[in-house]
Design brief:
Layout: H1 19-22, H2 29-32, E1 36-40, H3 54-64, E2 68-72, H4 77-83, E3 98-101, E4 107-111, E5 115-120, H5 125-141, E6 154-156, E7 161-164, H6 172-178, H7 183-195, E8 200-204, E9 208-212, H8 218-229, E10 236-240, H9 250-254, E11 258-261, H10 265-277, H11 282-289
Parallel strand pairs: 1-2, 1-10, 2-3, 10-11
Antiparallel strand pairs: 3-4, 4-5, 6-7, 7-9, 8-9
Helix pairs in contact: 3-10, 5-7, 10-11
The protein binds magnesium ion.
Magnesium ion (MG) binds at residues 40, 42-44, 240-242.
Amino acid sequence: MAGFLPNPGIHREPQIQSHQQRTPNHASQSDLMKKLIVFDLDGTLAESKSPIDAEMATLLGDLLSIVKVAIISGGDWPQFEKQVLGSSLSQSKHLENLSLLPTCGTKFYQYRLGWKQLYSEDFSREEKKTIVDALQEVRSTSDFKAAKLWGEVIEDRGSQITFSALGQRAPIEEKKKWDPDFAKRKILKAKLDQLIPVFSVHLGGTTSIDITKPGIDKAYGIRKLHRTLGIAIHRMFFVGDALIPDGTDYPAEKAGVLSIQVKNPNETKRVIESIIDNLDEPFEFAAEVAQ
Ligand SMILES: [Mg+2]
């Protein structure tokens, strides 16, 4: 697909000046036209761990009818099934334009008469054993091994191994109490960094530690999109709620994608409306909406 122009059939009331009013030089349009709009999931398209709402599903469906869209998150595929495909977006006629990238793009899904996994860059059996052994050693020698557990502590997500100090199904109240200042996990991380220096150890969620191959972040996902879809990075546009330095979306911007920070899913909805109306210059217009 190339050279998208806003589809008059889905035109909305403009919240801002039209493209024609703002950019007289139409010759440059085809160079500026974005071919792929990339979204973070939690805090951007949906509240954390929640499904996207009906209005968001409709807006994303409209966007998919004119341009390719990708959603990239640190979460695994079941989280996408619940948060993205559990909404009415799954009824869209344009799902072929949607790419889903769980665990920052170490997995890649596209719709071809059903959702198909293009690849999954899983740990080898030896790598998994090394990581699990290190986690068990650190856990058994730490001073704050949890007295009570709710479910499994170590979860194998294929390309990521996640340690949940209180177990996968611990109640949120218990989780919030356990390590609110990250102090316990920082100690665990320091030990893991010594034991398994060839892997990346990240602090995530409220009680969890994620272990991946090194260099797995949203920049990695952006490069995967570039290679898999054949779309130049300057033809992409990224929308996320954590573009501050050290934020989980920041690597996407560092990878060279024109990016915009939103505060919450409602702000993202306004940004999507402005992208639909101004696909050739989304940043300038979206920046007026997201303030
Ligand atoms: Mg987010």
